[in-house]
């Protein structure tokens, strides 16, 4: 009986060991990876994703404007923003009685170009 080689296995263990070492040195720490996984899990909710997209497009926005852009209630927006603030994805700035929210991770805008 002939033995079949697995399709997804390389015949060579390392093709470019120098590149492998460079990439491994550039990888984030396990702690940073865990934090990023938490942040990316937030993107699984359509409402939070709409909020982040609104902030990416509009910049700094107040809760009532975010509610209008996402067709969500102000209560739902506030709840979602609390989760996003807890994971340091957005921040809030206050000027008197007005509070606005801004996306704190501008480099993550590249995720939207992948879709």
Summarize the structure.
The model has no long low-confidence stretch (mean pLDDT 83). This protein is elongated. It is 54% helix and 12% strand.
Structure, described:
The chain has helices at 17-26, 30-42, 46-58, 63-70, 74-86, 110-114, and strands at 61-62, 90-95, 98-103. By secondary structure, the protein is α+β, with helices and mostly antiparallel strands. The chain has a three-stranded antiparallel β-sheet. Helix 3 (46-58) packs across helix 4 and helix 4 crosses helix 5 (74-86). The radius of gyration is 21 Å and the shape is elongated. The relative contact order is 0.11. The mean pLDDT is 83.
What is the radius of gyration?
21 Å
Overall pLDDT confidence: 83
Give the count of helical stretches.
6
Q: How is the quaternary structure best described?
A: single chain
Q: Helix fraction?
A: 40-55%
